[in-house]
Amino acid sequence: MAKSTNAFTCTACGASHKKWAGRCDACGAWNTIVEEAPLSQGPGRGLGAAKGRAVPLSSLATTEAPPPRHLAGMDELDRVLGGGLVPGSAVLVGGDPGIGKSTLLLQGAAAFARRGLNAVYISGEEASAQVRMRAQRLGLADAPVRLGAETNLRDILTTLDTERPDLAIIDSIQTLWSDQVEAAPGSVAQVRAAAHELVTFAKRKGVAIFLVGHVTKDGQIAGPRVVEHMVDTVLYFEGERGHQFRILRSVKNRFGPADEIGVFEMTGVGLAEVANPSALFLSERGQPVPGSAVFAGIEGTRPVLTEVQALVAPSTLASPRRTVVGLDSGRVSTILAVLEARCGIPFAGLDVFLNVAGGMRVSEPAADLAIAGALLSAREDSALPPEAVLFGEISLSGALRPVAQAENRLKEAQKLGFSQAILPDSQKVEGAAGMGVRRISDLTGFAGEVFGAG
Predict the structure, then answer these.
(1) 445 assigned ligand-binding residue
(2) Which residues contact 7 (CB under 8 A, 6 or more apart)?
(3) Is residue 425 within 8 Å of 400, Cβ to Cβ?
């Protein structure tokens, strides 16, 4: 009997399997493995005896100038792109439904078009009339952006090849389908094929392409992770629905720094840029209250000050609650364990709630000391000094470790009126004139000196 050549692929992570199973071994998801026909049969036994052509090789030394860039005039978008848009680059933009991806890209397309670029917007999810209504609401009806509504990949590529735009926006990659792939739109095979063809076209014709990608419930780009490897830049558009702030975060960029962020504010007429996000995130700080600590962080190349808020209350449950928003829950659990094991400060029988004000997400280990300060402040019902900022990494032994770019953190804090910094004893700081520096060697000393606990 002929052996089946069909493949089994996980729709969550894109891993390939020899046969169907209920659970994916790669990512652990259940009922996500589907059977798909291969894109091409290929030779049965290797490449055969025929030889290919020799690929020309060159040295690492080069005199080529850096790639030219086009500026949109939106400073936050240009910052995240690494200083402007590179011709021929492929950018993948992901985010939750309704977060504002289409609004951001429509405003970006209009900004680039008003600066002389030939921009085309292809919508696969909305009709042209819906996009026009959004453009009128945003005040972009007069922008020289050409609009189309299509999901057929062959027709889209033919249109782009005929029009030869400088910028093309595809909204979204999950709606496209190729007549050469026998799978439904949005499937792993269709997404992979569409992304490959569009990225190849961008490189061959020098057209910059933005691809909009849906995200899963875990916040990852839906479809195979190979799509993220195909493109040059991966941007995530983040934000909480209850907050007006939106964060455009770069997680991969071949033409600029990764982890760069751009901050926007959602208004009735679209997204407005936030030039000083630190002042915006701290704008609601009033009188000093227990459970509040200001963290001086670094996002990409930009120093950003955020407020870490904590609430500790007696629990009536057998297993106390641990609710964390905007922080790594595993990191918070580690800090709680260090406080109990190294400092003798128990949190058993207490509900712990942690939040980063303004909908910001903080992931760097330098926030450990601010998290510990907020927790101790809430537990001891004692407010931290209102003029102080905190940063430092906590090791499992309870010692405080230095972090990078301390000078930039202190300069941003000083600019916003803070006059004191609590940081690790081994932290080297230069150029901190005007800032009072309070050095702490370990977490036990921090709890004792600042709160009299331990």
Answers:
(1) no
(2) 16, 17, 35, 36, 37, 38
(3) yes
Which residue matches tokens 């860039």?
A: 69
Q: What is the CATH number of domain 75-275?
A: 3.40.50.300
- As separate numbers, helices (DSSP H) first and strands (DSSP E) second, the chain gives 11, 21
On whether 128 is known to bind a ligand per the annotation, the reply is: no
392 in a labelled binding site: no
User: 219 vs 5, 189, 239, CA distance in Å?
Assistant: 33, 21, 11
Known binder of ligand: residue 100?
Answer: yes
CB atoms under 10 Å from CB of 142, counted, come to: 10
Are residues 140 and 107 in contact, defined by beta-carbon separation less than 8 angstroms? yes
Answer yes or no: is 97 a known binding residue.
yes
Tell me: is residue 101 an annotated ligand-binding position.
yes
Asked whether the beta carbons of 109 and 253 are under 8 A apart, the reply is no
Residues making up the chain, counted from first to last? 454
Sorted by where each begins, the domain ranges of the chain are 1-37, 75-275, 280-451
**Pairwise CA distance, residues 437 & 434, whole Å:** 9
Any known ligand binding at 95? yes
84 is in an annotated binding site: no
Residue showing tokens 């021929």? 88
d(CA 382, CA 370): 15
Q: What is the pLDDT along the chain (454 residues), one digit of tens a residue?
A: 445 556 788 888 878 888 899 999 888 889 888 887 654 445 555 565 566 788 888 888 877 788 889 999 999 999 999 999 999 999 999 888 888 999 999 999 999 999 999 999 999 999 999 999 999 999 999 999 999 999 999 999 999 999 999 999 999 898 999 998 888 888 888 988 999 999 999 999 999 999 998 876 665 665 557 788 899 999 999 887 777 888 899 999 999 888 899 999 988 889 999 888 888 788 667 678 899 999 999 988 889 999 999 999 999 888 999 999 999 999 999 999 999 999 999 999 999 999 998 888 898 999 999 999 999 999 999 999 889 999 999 999 999 999 999 999 999 899 888 999 999 998 888 766 678 889 999 999 998 888 776 5
**280-451 placed in CATH 3.40.50.720:** no
